[in-house]
Amino acid sequence: MNDQTIKDEIKARYGQAALQAQKQERRSCCGTGTVLQAGKLDPITGRLYQDDETAALPQAAVAASLGCGNPTALASISPGETVLDLGSGGGIDVLLSAKRVGPTGKVYGLDMTDEMLELARANQAKAGVANVEFLKGDIEHIPLPDNSVDLIISNCVINLSPDKDRVLAEAFRVLKPGGRFAVSDIVIRGEMPAEIRRSIELWAGCVAGALEESDYKAKLERAGFEQVSIEPTRVYTAVDAAELLDGTGLDIGAIAPLVDGKFISGFVRATKPMAGQAACCSTTCCS
Question: Which residues form the Methyltransferase domain (predicted)?
Fold first, then answer.
């Protein structure tokens, strides 16, 4: 399974999800099936937003919500700020952020999938939001200048990248000194069975490519970030795992108990040091 294979699978999954959302059919990319499946919410993408948050949004933006958290509710977004959403999908987090930054702020949404970009721009037009721009590109190569963004958000996307070091280096580059990284993502606690790591479907489903918690923190620190933390927002059980594994061809009965409590939705926070400061990565460097 090479990097291009992974990217092609993700593009295909997200493109199909965008088309389904346009038909008002809720479909999940973080997960292997539909969001509403046999009357049950998808264990990763369900119950992420409050009704009062989504009431004013186009239905297609809500239908295309494929994340594992709600970064706009946990990040401190202030009027006038510039925000970048990595892997913005149908635009739900971009539109929510645009309301918070107000007319003096700006929100960029970056996505590599044409169908998602088309959907997001249509949702922007329906919402009548002017302070938003959707960009086409890879999160490993962000098409914005150095030191141009106050806040980076993302929702269950960084785990999809086969080159996470490059993603985090790019995030660090475009953030202004003092800028914040505030991302919802799937995070692993402990060892994952090899069968899961090898599954292309589960990579596109946000599980196989997820980083172990200490590895995620170490990569952020190596990229230059400080004040790194991961706050669990949901811990998935063997029952959740069985739902995610359904349709993958893996032995659900054998594997699901092995991952009970080992993968979580986490809110990942980090800060780019102010100009002239180096990130403090040890217990003594700041003394």
Answer: 78-224
Check residue 275 and give its pLDDT.
80
Residue 107: per-residue pLDDT: 99
pLDDT at 202: 80
Rounded CA-CA distance 114/80 in Å is 29
Q: Which position has the higher pLDDT, 34 or 166?
A: 166
Buried b (16+ CB within 10 A) or exposed e, 57-66: bbebbbbbbb
Measured CA to CA, the distance from residue 51 to residue 67 in angstroms comes to 16
| Cα 236 from Cα 269, distance rounded (Å) | 21
3-state SS assignment for residue 14: helix
- CA–CA gap between residue 210 and residue 214 (Å, rounded): 12
Residue type, 207: V
Rounded Cα–Cα distance for residues 76 and 50 (Å)? 17
Q: What residues form DSSP beta bridges with 83?
A: 107, 151
For residue 213, what is the enclosing H or E element? helix 213-223
For residue 172, the one-letter residue type is: F
pLDDT tens digits for 85-97? 999 999 999 999 9
Question: Could you tell me what percent of the chain has a pLDDT over 70?
Answer: 86
**What would the pLDDT profile of 179-216 be if each residue is shown by its tens digit?**
999 999 999 999 888 888 887 678 767 888 999 999 99
Residue type at 200?
I
What are the chain's domains?
3-271 (3.40.50.150)
Please give the radius of gyration of the chain, using alpha carbons only, rounded to the nearest integer: 18
Within the chain, residue ranges assigned H as helices are 3-22, 51-54, 59-63, 71-74, 92-101, 114-127, 164-174, 194-197, 200-204, 213-223, 238-245, 252-255
Q: Which residues contact 63 (CB under 8 A, 6 or more apart)?
A: 20, 21, 24, 25, 26, 27, 90
